[in-house]
Amino acid sequence: MSEKILIKDVMSRPVTIAKSAPITEALDKLLDECIDPLIVTNGSAVVGTVSRKSIAEILGSSRNASISPTQIHVANVVVENFTAAYPDQEIDVLIPLIQHYRMVAVLDDEHRLIGQVNAGDVLKVVRPGCSIDDVMEDAHTILADERVVHLRRRMLDEDIPAFIVMDENLVAGIVTGTDVAKAMRSFREVVDDRYQDNRIRNLLVRDIMTMRVLSVESGGSIEDVVDLMLRKDISSVPITADGRVSGMVTRTSLINAL
To answer: Please, are residues 51 and 38 in contact by the beta-carbon 8 Å criterion?
Structure first.
């Protein structure tokens, strides 16, 4: 990099959730603050992170069908594998950490939490010096009438963050882990415990998908993709060519290209 950029130049204020808080509160913060994952604390100490994906996983589990989302705590989904950095370190140190952990806690000399950095923070100041084709991944598709339980299983087993939803060979929408988490929370809150297991198995992808698909043409630039991601708070952007989806660019693929 041509100029020296420090972690303190890109870090944002820390957004945290207590380990004892309900996962509904964590999901609200994840959505309201437009971040993923969220730093988890126990008192003043950082103990891990919680993500939209982990919340979707626990809410979609049949083992928790009889438990209200407000009764499931962050402690049940916290991932304790996290890392930290210091504000005066250079951003070059930060990038491989973001590639592996997605979120880096920033600590002062007394190990107090003073900031955080995620992929979005980095992409605001550093962009890959390549073309869209260089960072484009395969676009995974799912039928609109597929069941959400099957979608959730594919997301977990194949580690796929987003699917293009197809209906009669046409793009009908896009569905992400965020859509699943929001749907599972709403479902658990409004459907009586006695009927949840049966009703959730009949929930279709079309019931939870986002119908408006924000995309970038293949002839566009990396700048176009990153600007769209940051402006709309989305983590995956479909790439189109001649009216058809040809691939997907994600925040992860952009960070990995740095």
So the answer is: yes
Q: End of a domain among 123, 152, 173?
A: 123
Find out whether the peptide bond into 14 is cis, omega within 30 degrees of 0. no
Sheet of strand 38-42, all strands in order from the earlier edge strand to the far edge? 16-18, 38-42, 45-50
d(CA 170, CA 176): 18
**pLDDT tens profile 78-131:** 998 889 999 999 999 999 999 999 899 999 999 999 999 999 999 999 999 999
**Domains contained in the chain, number:** 2
The answer to whether position 252 is within a domain reads yes
Looking at the structure, do residues 187 and 104 belong to the same domain, yes or no?
no
Predicted TM-score (pTM) above 0.85: no
Rounded (10°) CA dihedral 58, 61, 63, 69 = 50
Same domain? 235 vs 153:
yes
| Mean pLDDT for the chain overall | 89
Where residue 31 sits, what CATH number does that domain have?
3.10.580.10
pLDDT digits (tens, 9 = 90+) for 209-231: 999 999 999 989 999 999 999 99
Within a domain: 94? yes
What gap in Å lies between CA 51 and CA 69, rounded to an integer? 15
Integer CA distances (angstroms), 69 to 21, 42, 65, 77, 243, in order: 11, 21, 9, 12, 41
Provide the residue range defining the domain that includes 139.
132-256
